[in-house]
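Q: I'm writing up a methods section and want to include an example of the input and output format. Could you take the sequence below and give the corresponding predicted structure tokens, formatted cleanly so I can copy it straight into the document?
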Amino acid sequence: MSVAAASVIRASTSGSRARWLAWSSVALYVAFAGVSLALEFRFVGRVSPIDIWSVAALFACGVVGALIVTTHRTHPIGWMFCGAAVSFGFSFFAREYAIQALVVAPGTLPFGEAMAWFGFWADMPGIAVVALFLPLLFPDGHLPSPRWKPAAYFAGVNVVLAVILTMLAPATYAEAGYPSIRNPIGLDRYAAVFDTIATILQPLLLVLVVISAAALFDRLRRADADERQQLKWFAFAGALVLLSFLIQAASRFAPSLIGPAELFATLAVTALPVAVGVAILRYRLYDIDLIINRTLVYVLLTAILAGVYTAVVALFQRTFVAISGQGSDLAIVMTLFVLATVFTPIKNTLQERVDRRIKPRSAPAITHTASIDDLLMLSELHDRGVLTDDEFAAKKKQVLGI
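A: Here is the clean output for your methods example:
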């Protein structure tokens, strides 16, 4: 056997092992999540749609990670997503198992306290992957430049320290409604010390999140055309995550937003692995401009129509009260008629203004012979197999003028 043939066989075997390990992590997550939902259904009697969607969103993380590994077996982000899915899945399982073993039916399951201990910290590696290391390494799995190595090492040290402290700190499941479940190895006598260290670590972790975001801007400054599109996908998902945090914060002052906040947070978490998968696997990469355009239009449209609806209902109700002395459901019907009348003009106006903001006036990157629509058309032809990879790459360079 020649050296070249042996090298090909080794590479093929290594690739098969990587794919098997990646998809095994997805199967492991499914097992953890399935058992967790079954335990929750057993002691609560139902499983909320938010819980099911959250499980599906984390499942998407694992699947995207496995798809990336299948295509690029050494890509760090693929393995990060696979590991994050297992981390979240095991944490969910450990918590539900501990609640069942220690509160719902004490003595029915072994190792309840051990699983409670895992439940305190098992999801922290997954959180670190998503919040700290993904922005640092996206999209190629490498730092933007060597000067970012200290930031990566600093993040790693902080995460390890935070995990160790959580393992040892006295804590309970009070937030989940089970204050009787405590950290079995929590050092109660040093509670004040742990509180002090946590007070120092929390601002540091926030600083690390800001540093990770700064790494994205640095990468954007150096990026070529394709990488800019990849970063747009990631930034779009990141904006949804940030918006979900803002809505969550607003829900503290407006309790009516609690339900929508949970729903939007789950949607944002779902968008993150999807955006990363599209960006790295390069499936319909250039569709992000159209998605951003439509999102801006419909978010603004929803906000305007919500304001119009509230104002017009109040106006009509006051009018009916002034005329007849009592309110009327006719106010809502008339308001809906007004909304139906103004919907199209408002949408068209918003679309024109968003187009002017997003599409460059002088089109420096895209010449008069092409546009975003041309890129989308080329991508569609490439997906259908009409254009080969080389033909697609050549046409894309021609369109972008590079």
